[in-house]
Amino acid sequence: MSVGLLPFLACGVLIAAGVTLLLERSLVRELAGVILLGNGVNLLIVTAGSTAGRPPFTGTAGIADPLPQAMVLTAIVITLGMTAFVLALVHRSWQLSGSDEVQDDTEDRRVRLRSRRGELSATVTSRQDAYRRLLADQRAELAQLEAEQAERGRLQEADLERRIARVHAELEEWTERLRAQGLTEEELHHRLEQAGRRAEQAAMDNEERIEQLREEHARTRREQAARKRELRRKLKARQREARRQMRAAIREERERQALAQDPELEGED
Amino acid sequence: MDRLITLEGLVCAPVLLPLLAAGVKLAIGGRLRRVQSFISLGTLCVTLAVSVVLLVAADARGPLVTDLGGWPEPIAICLVADRLSTLVLVVSQAVTLCVMVYSVADAYDRQEHDAPMAIFHPAFLVMVAGVSNAFLSGDLFNLFVAFELLLSGSYVLLTFGGTESRIRAGATYTLMALVSSMLFLIALAVTYAAAGTLSLAQLAVRFGGLPDQVKLLVELTLLLAFAIKAAIFPMQAWLPDSYPTAPAPVTAVFAGLLTKVGVYSIIRLEALLFPGGPVASLLMWVALATMLVGVLGAVAQTDMKRMLSFTLVSHIGYMVFGVALSTVAGLAGAVFYVVHHITVQTGLFLVAGMVERRAGTTSVNQLGGLMKATPLIAVLFFVPAMNLSGIPPMSGFLGKLMLVQAGLASGGWPAVTLVAGGLLTSLLTLYAVAKTWAKAFWRAPRGERIGTVVESEEATGEEPTVTTAKLPVALPLSVIALVALGLAFTVLAGPLSALTLRAAGELMAREPYISAVLGEVP
Question: For the whole prediction, is pTM greater than 0.90?
């Protein structure tokens, strides 16, 4: 039995086109694919089943094999019925969801849900890490500020001590000088008292300044702590928000899944 | 033909009667519902009786052949009833009858009278006719038509009611089935071009003289088409996605019968047309992968129906394993397993349907305490579940034992690996069903209504609907009948395994089939 190349090529093209269309997501395209595939296969049956060019009915000797033709007729009828059914499916699908796309199956959706959950928790973790880093940075900065302030205070205190020491030295010198000038002890005492009062005044001023500095320092610390608390509160709130969003997304996905999974009871026999 | 009804004439009955009944019911429409359910149940009872008669006759007298249309063989399309086909026919009819009783009772209880009678029953009967036709067909093209018949019925049943989830599942299922049909047609074209006939008996004779490559091509194409129908790895993904959305009786009958039609076709194909071919070793690995992938999927599921769908895929692997051994013992084990599995799996899906009716859900995360609330359902789930996972002395154990013995007897490391894989699958199945049973039935109820619904940890927020507290009597009765049938296989294991051995012997010998069809010894 010899068969022509052309019919076989036609079968191949039809089947290839059909398979390509079958890989689409749209049901209508898939249906077109099935129809093309069906035609290609029917052609294949006729081509493979009998020699080309024979008449189907006349005579008894040279007629073509009727069996493949009968089979193809049956196959065509069956394909017609199936096409009608798939069209009904497409129509119903379009009525229900407004599209004729084949949807993912439950397992696919479950895998996707799990990966999305993983992504969300990864986002939350990375955000948490970022805030933790920020807090640590600020704490370090604060510590540095405190250290600087303490240093400054210490320097100022030392400066004051030095100045007091100098005043004392000056006072000593001055008394010596006055003694050398031959002042009486009483006068000297009197003058010393006056000078001492002035020096005391200066020392008190200095102490006031130190006290002020300390207060300032404490206030800065309090402010810093408040800022830190505020930051923490904000972080907690954001984390809560992220978690809530994640849970909402998961719940939504679950509901969708449950809807897809559980057959509705209406219309069930 | 002296008598009006001959034994050979009866061979047509399992195909013609359901089709006739479907036609009558379509003509009646939604009226006369008592008559309607009487017609459905009566038809199935009669076909069951006819199938039993055929089984007895085929066992006693060898294959019965009917040449349709009165043409002489090999011009006529023939229906052949041998031991294998009548055995699976009897079991499938019995199971179908139980499912029909269940669905009629269900429909009566729900006060839904019009739609089920007008659409559900005709589609169901057409599917039954297709299944019978596939079992009895002695011709590849007739087998194709039988497939289309049962598929067209199943499309309607699966998308019944046209809800969104069913349309989604139905689209996948329909396209998958269409692709498989196209592959089948391509295989038919190639076969006809190579051998000039599609009669199975004639093909068995003519394939002897064909080159090996051509035979291999035909075999692989046909196998691919059947493997999609039987949900064998890697073509199994459509099944757990589409089955659970359908109504319970539909899922039950799909799970019981449709995949088994694919398995039956593979048995017929491998035993009759391509005995001792090189594909057997490929089938072994495919069987192993099917078993493991299926059962691992089952372990991961939290929905009862989905879990059962995955075990269905997994246990198809056992049957393919038996076929792949290509010994009489292996085939006998496969046939025994088909018989056992049809009954048990259908029963389990029906019980899942009852659970859904009773508690409003089949998600084991929400169920709990059902054992106290409905001890009957708990027992009805437990027995076939243990049967499925192969607890001695139930038929699941016996079927696996036959396969294991056949595997060890045939020897070779692939067979032994498969035996190990089979045992592992059995254990994992036990784990999956025990987990489901413990969660849904055994654990304490945590909801307000004792025994109905447990508030799940991840509350969905929706209150499940409990349709009726009391189930109609016929619902559990039909399931009890199925469970009892499954247990009866244990009691009758001796005669049954002897019958499967005889069927397998007849299959492997090939000669009785060929000579019965062609009328002479070739």
Answer: no
